[in-house]
């Protein structure tokens, strides 16, 4: 089976993230909901690639002759086991990521995104992943992990207020930047969450640049575009210095693929 066409699958906390690669070139990336166990079991018995891509809801038929290898990384241990029925599966684990000084429970998504950022812009590098959880993960010149931080992401902050209080409604992430001094409940929630989040991110990147003035700072994750838009409004000087990087985790997975095949 040719290894030049391959799929990357990142199992995140809210959904599955997919990318189709031809060697080191990302062809396209898409997200799906969690696939039922039965669908995953069927993938292995797909007769052709059209069936296969229908099952994983790929946008357009993937142009391959045989079932592609899947390179998988997961932050949900239980979700990994159902993929073991797929014949050509390669799980990427933390010990395969060439960063020094990592701790055993560091999320593979954080390690891969940082590896990807370092490969593109060189180390030191800081990655902000604005997903279900929002994380900061940084490494210095010699690829040693400096450390990072984890907090609830935008949607999770809004959900937790809506779900754990009597009087607060569930509100959606706003397209436009909210005003700070709100005069109704939904806008008060948005102001509180967004302004403190922005100030928090600014504080972390300022602290990072104080130690590593030349470092790249890259933002990835589902809320990347939203947060970078807010940054344009609130802290335009910082916005210009944060690199928008939608596929950092896939770029880390690609580094792993290349380390096996090149
Ligand atoms: N269809 C969607 N489902 C879930 N989140 C979405 C969707 N569209 C946009 N988002 C935003 O993306 C964020 C989640 O980001 P992402 O998809 O990167 O998270 P994730 O699947 O948990 O991945 P990771 O675990 O790698 O952070 C949410 O805060 C939400 O605001
Ligand atoms: C923090 C998340 C949830 C972000 O997706 C993931 O990277 C994870 O489960 N990490 C494990 C804990 C850690 O990174 O310290
Ligand atoms: K948990």
UniProtKB/TrEMBL annotation:
Keywords assigned: ATP-binding, Coenzyme A biosynthesis, Cytoplasm, Kinase, Metal-binding, Nucleotide-binding, Potassium, Transferase
Protein known as: Type III pantothenate kinase
Documented EC number(s): 2.7.1.33
Q: Which HAMAP family match?
A: Pantothen_kinase_3
> Which protein family is it in?
Belongs to the type III pantothenate kinase family.
Q: What's the cofactor?
A: K(+); NH4(+)
Question: Its annotated pathway?
Answer: Cofactor biosynthesis; coenzyme A biosynthesis; CoA from (R)-pantothenate: step 1/5
Q: What is the reaction catalyzed?
A: (R)-pantothenate + ATP = (R)-4'-phosphopantothenate + ADP + H(+)
Residues bound to substrate: 103, 107-110, 185
CDD domains tied to this protein: ASKHA_NBD_PanK-III
What molecular functions are annotated in GO for this chain?
pantothenate kinase activity
Quaternary assembly: Homodimer.
Identify the main location.
Answer: cytoplasm
């Amino acid at each position: 089976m040719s290894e030049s066409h391959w799929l990357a699958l990142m199992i995140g906390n809210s959904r599955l993230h997919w990318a189709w690669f031809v060697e080191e070139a990302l062809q396209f990336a898409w997200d799906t909901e969690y696939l039922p166990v039965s669908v995953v079991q069927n993938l292995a018995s797909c007769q052709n690639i059209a069936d296969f891509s229908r099952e994983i809801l790929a946008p357009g038929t993937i142009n391959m002759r045989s079932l592609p290898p899947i390179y998988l990384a997961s932050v949900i241990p239980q979700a990994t086991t159902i993929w073991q029925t797929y014949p050509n599966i390669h799980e990427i684990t933390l010990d395969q990521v060439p960063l020094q000084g990592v701790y055993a429970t560091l999320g593979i998504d954080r390690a891969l995104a940082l590896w990807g950022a370092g490969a593109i812009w060189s180390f030191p590098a800081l990655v902000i992943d604005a997903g279900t959880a929002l994380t900061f993960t940084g490494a210095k010149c010699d690829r040693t992990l400096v450390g990072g931080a984890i907090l609830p992401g935008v949607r999770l902050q809004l959900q937790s207020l809506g779900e754990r209080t009597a009087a607060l409604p569930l509100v959606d992430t706003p397209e436009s930047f909210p005003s700070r001094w709100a005069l109704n409940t939904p806008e008060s929630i948005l102001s509180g969450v967004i302004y403190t989040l922005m100030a928090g991110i600014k504080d972390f990147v300022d602290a990072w640049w104080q130690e590593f003035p030349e470092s790249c700072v890259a933002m990835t994750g589902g809320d990347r575009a939203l947060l970078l838009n807010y940054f344009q409004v609130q802290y335009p000087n910082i916005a210009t210095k944060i690199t928008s990087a939608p596929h950092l985790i896939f770029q880390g997975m690609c580094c792993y693929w290349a380390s096996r095949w090149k």
